[in-house]
Amino acid sequence: MSSDSSDRAADSGTNDNPSQSQHEQSQSVSPPALGPSPSPDITSYPKSQIKVLLLEKISKAAAQLFINEGFNVEVIDKSPPHEVLLEKISSAHAIGVRSKTILDAGVLAHAKRLLAIGCFCIGTDQVDLPTAATNGTAVFNAPFANTRSVAELVLGELLMLARQVFDRCGECHRGTWNKSSAGCVEVRGKTLAIIGYGHVGSQLSVLAEALGMHVQFYDVVPKLPLGNAVAKESLAAAISTADFVSIHVPAEPGTVNLIGAKEFELMKKGTFFINASRGSVVDVNAAAAALRSGHLAGGAFDVFPEEPSAAGDPFNCALQGCKNTILTPHIGGSTEEAQVAIGKEVATKMIQFINAGSSLGSVNLPELALPRVTGTHRILNIHQNRPGVLKEINHQLAEVNVVAQMLMTRGPVGYLIVDVDRSVSREVKKSISAISASIKTRILY
Fewer CB within 10 Å, N- or C-terminus of the chain? Predict the structure, then answer.
């Protein structure tokens, strides 16, 4: 698969693997031999030269899918130091990350060949999405694959908080026998407020109702209640009458400290609070104060405003030492089943984008998918979304046989997929690349 004209020069001679850092545990996996040289009418960039960089112990299932495609795959078990990341990403055509590797504008400025970014998780806040879009790089994630794992963790924590299990467990480990029912309750008949009724929140709703709980929820977008769940008209209405509150909202400017001192005061005395969404959505200092004062009967936190970059790094938080408080190291989606499902889902989306230009599931580019037409070459063009660009593109296509064409815009960029006769494909690709608004142009098949 070829890049635009500026990228082709950079891509020449890329059979060698990037140098390995002595401080990183990495593995470079060479693809299988591709057989004889391709025939002259094959224009796609050689798969053996497409470099895929997978970080942070992404599932082996994902790596295997890329290897099966014949790509050049390098695996690094953790998020590398900044300078190593800059070195690695400079020659990568695709990169896979989880939650620790930050791909901001500064890092993406070094990614001259990057076609696709895979966030092997639900969230994408670790990536500068607008910069990736204006660079012509598609970003994909897995919004569904680990939702069950997160919902199950929350349900388990809900039960453990109600029975003060973690406090009793710690006491037993320290040799103290403290058999008591004080403050311990059943969840049956209690009310659970779910803030954010999306993929995780709605699954939690079904599971909690199966335990005999009454479920109410609040979401900024109208959602169809599942089972007997009841939608509330406001955040305050949802949390002020609940026995348990669980929050499931994305990290956005509007959700920063969505739950703070004011919201904790609205909750009934003795409420249990759980956050397994994003660390930025809860004021942990206010949460710690509510727990220490006894206003909250307990809490469970799987995410934090500041999290260590690697396992074994020091962790400090205001919530440490609070009574009946469960702290876990961002493990909501950390089940074997979820990681395999995420690996397959994101890798498949990235492969489809690289091989056929399908951007379905992209969070920053227009979502297009055009069935392949045999006997043609496919031109893929990402361009600046400005008036007159479509006219310029169609002017370049006016004198050729266009077999199929799709174009859509999203924010600052537009995306074009066009299938043309093989005999004119190189000229078409060159002329569309020359349009001043073009960001990245590729030719396939």
Answer: C
